[in-house]
């Protein structure tokens, strides 16, 4: 869009209203590099599907993503969107509608334990929608840290590393002390009582002395993936502009 401020372009600002329950920010991708995503928790099936349908209609060349989907949403999606491509991940509780873009770059998604997989898989689903390549490294937590050392070449060859860990959350700081790419820590709510629903893992990651580690909110796989995608796409755009 162009405003009256000397002809300089302004960020796109289209809003699509869905009844009395949603106002879709359908130009968010153009403005920020990350599209609006439907947080399906506490929404009805009809509200979730209407929001996904609205996002697809506004941007038919881009997939639409819903996270934290209740089971009825996952079960009914294929029938509802029968004329579109649908990807359901019951572990991540994500629903993707529309064809995925060709990926660029590579992000390593590192998962401390199998119990952390739902959050790690949310990262992977989000990266796919954002057009960023990813590799999954699972079950390499600090209790058996030799498993991590066997994967260091994979991590070091990535543009960014996301570390998903619960319990005491130590894995993120360990990884940040071993690799050059930026590391994003995702504390999870996995753990016994004193882990306090992920607060201990979050505090450990925030207090880590390993430089190059940033931390998102508890269980926020989507947020970690969005941040990683911005890192990868910015680096890719700079290389492209330089002709490299």
Task: Explain what this protein looks like in three dimensions.
The protein is 36% helix and 20% strand. With 244 residues, it is α/β, with parallel strands linked by helices. The protein folds into two domains: 15-97, no CATH class; 104-241, 3-Layer(aba) Sandwich (Rossmann fold). The strands form three sheets. A five-stranded parallel beta sheet has the order 8-7-9-10-11, with helices on both faces. The protein has a four-stranded mixed beta sheet with strand order 3-4-6-5, sandwiched between helices. Strands 1-2 form a two-stranded antiparallel ribbon. Strand 1 (15-18) and strand 2 (22-25) form a beta hairpin. Helix 4 (117-129) packs parallel to helix 9. The radius of gyration is 19 Å and the shape is globular.
Task: Give the arrangement of secondary structure elements.
Elements: E1 15-18, E2 22-25, H1 28-32, E3 38-39, H2 45-58, E4 64-67, H3 71-80, E5 86-89, E6 94-97, E7 104-111, H4 117-129, E8 132-137, H5 146-149, H6 152-156, E9 160-165, H7 170-176, E10 183-187, H8 199-206, E11 213-215, H9 221-241
Parallel strand pairs: 3-4, 7-8, 7-9, 9-10, 10-11
Antiparallel strand pairs: 1-2, 4-6, 5-6
Helix pairs in contact: 4-9
* Low-pLDDT windows of residues: none
| Rg on CA atoms, Å | 19 Å
Number of helices: 9
Number of strands: 11
Helical fraction equals 25-40%
Level-2 CATH architecture of the largest domain: 3-Layer(aba) Sandwich
Average pLDDT for all residues: 91
Distance between the amino and carboxyl termini: 30 Å
CATH class of the largest domain: Alpha Beta
Strand content: 15-25%
Strand order of the largest sheet: 8-7-9-10-11
Describe the biggest sheet? 5 strands, parallel
Domain count, please report it.
Answer: 2
* SS content category: alpha/beta
The succession of helices and strands, N to C, reads EEHEHEHEEEHEHHEHEHEH
| Overall morphology | globular
CATH fold group of the largest domain: Rossmann fold
């Amino acid at each position: 869009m162009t405003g009256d401020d000397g002809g300089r372009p302004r960020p796109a600002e289209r809003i699509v209203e869905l009844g009395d329950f949603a106002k879709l920010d359908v130009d968010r991708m153009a403005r920020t590099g990350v599209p609006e995503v439907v947080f399906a928790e506490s929404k009805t099936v009809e509200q979730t599907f209407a929001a996904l349908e609205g996002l697809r209609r506004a941007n038919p060349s881009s997939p639409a993503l819903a996270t934290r989907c209740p089971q009825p949403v996952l079960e009914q999606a294929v029938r509802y969107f029968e004329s579109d491509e649908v990807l359901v991940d019951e572990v991540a509780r994500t629903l993707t509608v529309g064809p995925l873009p060709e990926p660029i770059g590579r992000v390593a998604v590192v998962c401390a334990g199998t119990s952390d997989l739902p959050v790690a898989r949310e990262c992977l689903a989000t990266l796919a929608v954002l057009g960023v390549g990813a590799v999954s490294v699972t079950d390499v937590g600090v209790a058996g840290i030799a498993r991590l050392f066997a994967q260091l070449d994979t991590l070091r060859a990535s543009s960014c590393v996301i570390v998903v860990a619960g319990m005491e959350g130590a894995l993120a700081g360990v990884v940040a002390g071993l690799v050059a790419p930026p590391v994003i820590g995702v504390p999870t709510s996995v753990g016994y009582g004193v882990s306090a629903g992920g607060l201990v893992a979050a505090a450990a990651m925030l207090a880590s002395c390993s430089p190059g580690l940033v931390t998102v909110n508890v269980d926020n796989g989507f947020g970690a993936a969005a941040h990683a995608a911005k890192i990868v796409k910015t680096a890719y755009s700079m290389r492209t502009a330089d002709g490299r």
